[in-house]
Each structure stands twice: as C-alpha cells, then as structure tokens.
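User: Round two. Same drill as before: sequence, then structure, for each protein.

Assistant: Same drill it is. First protein:
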Amino acid sequence: MKKDEPPLDFPDTLEGFEYAFNEKGQLRHIKTGEPFVFNYREDLHRWNQKRYEALGEIITKYVYELLEKDCNLKKISIPVDATESEPKSFIFMSEDALTNPQKLMVLIHGSGVVRAGQWARRLIINEDLDSGTQIPFIKRAMDEGYGVIVLNPNENYIEVEKPRIHVQSSSESADEPAEKRERKDKVSKETKKRRDFYEKYRNPQREKEMMQLYIRENGSPEEHALYVWDHFIAQSAAENVFFVAHSYGGLAFVELMIQREADVKSKVTAVALTDSVHNVWHQEAGKTIREWMRENCCNWVSSSEPLDTSVESMLPDCPRVSAGTDRHELTSWKSFPSIFKFFTEASEAKTNSLKPALTRRSHRVKHEEL
C-alpha cells in the first residue's frame, strides 16, 4: 500500500535542514557528519525530489551570498532601465569589471537549475563548493589581475501565482427569478465539491498554479548573453576579454558571436569551453566565425584520456582536448589549471603579435648573429 505523502513543507535555511558546509566546503549533516541523503524517506520519490529541490534553492542563495561576501562581487540588477514593477534579474561583477584596462573574465554556466556562480548543483551538494561553483575561477582571476563578470543565463522569468478568474455565470444575471438562481447555485456548489474531492484524492498536495513573467531582453540564455555583452562587456575598458563557458553556455557564446561577430573578434582574446554543446552547423555559424574559433577557442571535453590530450573532432570549429574526466559536470573544475594557462599564453601571443614588425625583425637578426 502506498504511504500517505507528508506535507511538501521544507525548511528555508541550511540550519533548518540540519546541514552545513565544513572547512573543506563539503555539505555535511550537523549532528551525524554524514553527506546529504537523497532517499530520506523510502518509497516517496516525489517527496524526496521536492526536498532536494528545496535544498537546492537554499544552495543558490548561499552561493549568491558567497559571491558578494567572499568574492567581493557586486550584484547588478538587469534590465538596467527596469521600472519598479517589472520582472528583474541580476548578474555579478567585480569592482573593476568595467574599468580594468587589461583583462576581463566572463563566466557562463550551462542550462537547468544552476544559477550565477554555479557549475553544477549536484556537485555542490554531493562533492564540494570548489568543484561545483565558479568561486575558484573568480578568486584566481582576481588574484591574477582580471576583472570578473558572472552571468546568470537561466534566470529568465519570475513565477507568480495565477490569478483566479471569476466568470459571471448566467445565474448571476439580475433578470433571473431568485428561486431558480438558488437552485442553480446549489447544483454548481455540489459539482465544485465533487470536483475538489476528486482533485484531492488524485493529487493530495495540489501545488499552486503558477504563471511565468519573462524578464525583458533576458528571456533565454542566448538573449541574456547578448544583453550583458551590449550593456556591460562591450562597454568595458579591458583590452583582453576571456570567456569560460560550460555546456549550454558554449552555445550561448556562439550565438553571441553570430549576432556580434566584429565586436567579439575585436574584444575577445580567448574562449575556454568546457564540454560545450554548441554546434556550428545547427547554429549556422559562418566560415569566418569557424576560422576565428579554430584560432581562439579550446573545448575541454569529457574524456577518459589524461588532461589536455587532443580529442578527435567531428566538427570543423575549435580544438578539443580532454578535461581529464568523463563526467560532464566536472569538466570545468578538472580543466581549471589548463584554462588559466591557455589564457596566459593567448594573452602573450596577442601582445607579441602587436609588437612592431621592425622590433621583431631586429630581435631575430640579433638572435641569428649570436
């Protein structure tokens, strides 16, 4: 016999769940020290899933707090010209994101439940904050003199409860005799009672009916990337812009490139993709974009080969190398050291290519004489 489902009523703090992050950034039970248990109640998969989702929402807020307090990022509301009443989203930026003259790093996560500052919720809950969040990238970038912008491409709408529309029935028309109206009301009340009873039996915890109000010019990850480019990245002082884009974030970057090809080429120095799901054919990226990607992008893909081993590509876009893991969600964390090395080398190569040809030639002559 199926058990009665307990109320879908969960705590709204980590303490309420009796969990906390330890000094290693691992989520542990306050009393037992055990990792998170998904099957908290056996045979109640839906309830366990709802509990996991409730914890996930708390994790999202917790990461937002870390971005502000631990990484000293500022939360910036978008659209920038939003009215008081319209739906809004936000991104995070370092103090110097728009003024740093040298370097700017832009981070884009994949699709799904993740929000700004996260690579994978599953990793944050089951492994640790280092592997599951973008915080190690942000801290190292800032240590190395980068400005930082953290995108929030999945925050596309706000949810509000659907208003109940009261339709005036014919029995409410004034011309009808009172007796007839009462009889009709009684019938409709009985029908409603039966329907409510059936609903309760079929779905004992009927959740509220919600509607989505989309955020202007940020209604999809692709729209969001374009919006942040136009209003922030394109306005930044940085001579070298670098992107780290995971999974669907890679597709959003390619879409941005299709929409703003000349601007991206003049401002972006290198792009690190991690198990990106972009497809240059399906997205109809032109030849000039594909050529630029071959020169300036690298995709660290899930593979059992050692880190940075070259991986065969079916598509003629950017080089693919192993991320040193065959787990999709771990590709960003595992390729972390290689990505920074790639950016440093790209930056040096650009600096060298911009030196006057004469200087390079005279240097070569001197070298040959030696």
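Second protein:
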Amino acid sequence: MELEGRGAGGVAGGPAAAPGRSPGESALLDGWLQRGVGRGAGGGEAGACRPPVRQDPDSGPDYEALPAGATVTTHMVAGAVAGILEHCVMYPVDCVKTRMQSLQPDPAARYRNVLEALWRIIRTEGLWRPMRGLNVTATGAGPAHALYFACYEKLKKTLSDVIHPGGNSHIANGAAGCVATLLHDAAMNPAEVVKQRMQMYNSPYHRVTDCVRAVWQNEGAGAFYRSYTTQLTMNVPFQAIHFMTYEFLQEHFNPQRRYNPSSHVVSGACAGAVAAAVTTPLDVCKTLLNTQESLALNSNFTGHITGMASAFRTVYQVGGVTAYFRGVQARVIYQIPSTAIAWSVYEFFKYLITKRQEEWRAGK
C-alpha cells in the first residue's frame, strides 16, 4: 500500500482521502499510520508529531507496519487453523514416526526410512491406513493450539512489559511458550493417546469411539493422561530449545528484525528440527506410555507402565541406549515442515483477520 498522495492531509491533518482512494481505505490507512507513528522513539505526543517515515521498497515490509492490536479471539482462531492444518498435512509422517518408535516391532513393521515405511503401509494395508486417527487429532489440535497461541501472545506481551518495557525479551518469549504448553498438552493429551493406539501396526481399533471406549473400560480415565507429565517434560525443554535456536538464527538471517516471512520459515523449521532431535528420548517414552506395547509390558513386572521413570527403565531394558532414539529421523522430518506450517499459517491468519476487523471498523 503506497504512501504517496498524503501531503498535508497526513496523520496530523486528519483523514482526508487521497486521490483514487475511497474514504474507508483512507481512514483505515490513517488509523494504521497513527498507531505506527505514535510508537516512535520519543513516545507519546512527541512521537505523534513526527512525519511518517517512507519505507524503502527494496527492504521488504516492516513488521510494525502490519495491523496491530489483535484480539484474543483472533489469536485463538488463527492458532486453531494453524494447528489443524499442521497436523493434517503432516499426519502420514506422524503415523510412521509412531511405528518407528516401537520398541519391539512386528517383523512386517520394521522400516528403514520414512519413504519406505509409507510405501509399505499403503501397499500392504491400504491407501488410507496412514490417515487412521486423523479425525481425533484434528478435533484435539483445534482447541489445543487455540489455547496455546492465545496464552503465548498474552503472556509474551505481559512478561516483555515487565522484563524489557517497550522492547522484545527472549526470556519472556521462552517463558510464555513453556507456560502455554501446559494448556496445549492438557487439551491434546487424550487425542494423542487415541491417535497413537490407532496408528500402531495391527491396531484393533478402526474407529475413534471403539478406541476411547476400550481405553476407558479397561484402563480407566487416567489412561488418557498417563503420559501428561512426560509430555510436559518433553515439551518444556523443546520450547526452550526451539525459541533459543530460533532467536539465534534470526540474529544471522534477519538482523534488522523486519517482517521477513522466508527468514521466519527457515529459522522456525531449523529450530524445530534441533529441538525435535534433542528431545527424541522423551518422545519415545511418551509413545510407550500412550501405546502400552504388549512386548514392552512383558518386561515390566508392575503391569501398566505408569510414569516417566518406569518408561525410561523399560525402554532401556528392551532396547538399550539406542532405543531412546528410535524414530529420530521421522521425528525431525516431521518437525521441519510442521513448525514452518504452524508459524506461517498462524501469522498469515492473524494478519488477515486483524486486517478485516480494521476494515470493518473503518467502514462503520
């Protein structure tokens, strides 16, 4: 959106419409510029008196020039869409990851790599077999990511204002992500349990309702949260590593901290891959707690595997140290596009919804 044609009728001169621009568009542009200029280095009225700064067309769009003031509802809707798309697009790879993390897989379910696994699953079990359980995942991902992004945005702003007023704090970003994980995992954990049991080779469950009923009747309601503490133990360091790596890469790829979608996607994907690889042992334990593999249970004398310590011990007894890194290839391959999709879709929908809200207010 160009800034020419404003002349003396800019921010200080009132919402005069520029030639070729409707009154609604002019009012919308004035509103955005007033907020951007009002946040000048001088702050307050002094900042508002500065003329708008022309942007170099070759420098790319400035992040601060995007619509500001997104509501909690906007964060929740954008987060829900991002979460659902992320999980739906990457679900076949997630199915492979679950199977490759099996401690004692059936001979027919031993795979060398992700592509071979997908080809064999489709060839021997049907085209739609890698998608079994997608419906419960999408159902859980929507509210889980809505809570995650809304909580993250609110806490990030609140903590940044305390730690580094008027600026961005890496500590605040990391802390906000870790706290938001508590809500995300609380909403997502039951869906994870059902999903992973339906993904396993020779799973007896063909429908979500059958799996939910069997788990509830045979193991009780607590089975849906058996891996919750392990998931938190995995996701809290995951988020910390994710944000630290992301900020480190941004310092190199985007030192001016402009709004640069390509740098955000690349940094996010690399950060997700590093965090995924480091936390793979915890993900293996989480998968064991969710699926309760029969062969692994035979090596555990207490019956059901009920805690992180028990899961770590069982993984080592069954497969040794290398068992902690089963499925690491699939996990990293899953996380690279998954993180990129989540953040790019979230930022896009947040911008789109906020822009539509601003246009609606300007047209009233």
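The chain has a mean pLDDT of 79.

User: Perfect.
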